[in-house]
Amino acid sequence: MDVKRKTVESLVSVLKSSSSSEEEQKDTVCELRLLAKWGDDQRISIVDAGAVPYLLPHLYSCSSNAKLQENAITALLNLSIYTPNREVIMSSRGALDAIVHCLTAGRSVEAKQNAAAAIFSLLVVERYRAIVGDRPEVIRGLLDLIHQGIPKCTKDALKTLFLLALYPLNRPKLVSAGVVPVIFSVLMTGGTGIIEDATAVIAQVASCGESEKAFKKILGVEVLVDLLDTRTPRVQENAASALLNLAQCGGKQVADQILDVQRAMPALTVLLTSGTARCKSKISSLLTLLLVHERRPATAMF
Predict the structure, then answer these.
(1) Is-contact 72 109, C-beta < 8 A?
(2) What's the whole-model pTM score?
(3) How far is 285 from 289, CA to CA, in rounded Å?
(4) Which of 33, 40, 238, 294 is deepest in the core (most CB within 10 A)?
(5) Alpha helix locations (H) across the chain?
(6) Which residues contact 198 (CB under 8 A, 6 or more apart)?
(7) Overall average pLDDT of the 140-155 stretch
(8) Can you tell me the distance from the alpha carbon of 101 to that of 241, in angstroms, rounded to the nearest whole number?
């Protein structure tokens, strides 16, 4: 047994011990956090030593132990970087409850942010997206994190919302929870990277029937058309994808909304020749759809 593994087992034994002092627990969790940051070998050793169930109670730490809570959630986040550890975490009794508690009631912004990042890491595994999506408090917690107005928090929350939105049955839940107006507000204030992440979420959420009313309330179509003309290639791709998804779900009503925006057709025409391959593909499909709906009333007269 090498020295590093012995060190890990010694630390985890302190974590497991009911006789260890609060100060010893704090120091141990901090050391495990740091060890889990550096390499899969360490992450494997920590999980194999049985640390995960003993980190979870610290996610409920009181205000006087805010740093302990932060170190515990960050340790779990670091452990989850190694893919097989995600299953160990999710299968640990009460793990998701504890992580969600840290997201929604964390004692510091850093703890909440790292809880969001931990959930993102778990959601990389597709089968967990339905499970996490059934927890409405997760969506509320992520939106609260965006409301903090801190770029790093916003970015972690948006990335987590994106993975949730990749599961189709989560999209109506996201709309119902009020994701659409919150994310559109981010478009008004965020930097380029955040706007790219925000439009990626919007593009996914747009592909459910419930999205049309939510987008209409905030003039979402007009904003998306503006993004076609003013932002980076990735934002243009996402905006085009969102408009296409909206039109596919909302039919003629959404098509009319797009056509009513005077600058829509010029912007779409320009990107049809100058956009990225993905953008061109989305816009070509959208223009075909708009043409179908534009002609439909005339066809119905015969």
Answers:
(1) no
(2) 0.93
(3) 6
(4) 238
(5) 3-16, 22-37, 40-48, 52-55, 66-80, 83-91, 95-105, 109-123, 128-133, 136-147, 151-165, 171-176, 179-189, 192-205, 211-217, 220-230, 233-250, 252-259, 264-274, 277-300
(6) 158, 183, 186, 187, 190
(7) 96
(8) 34
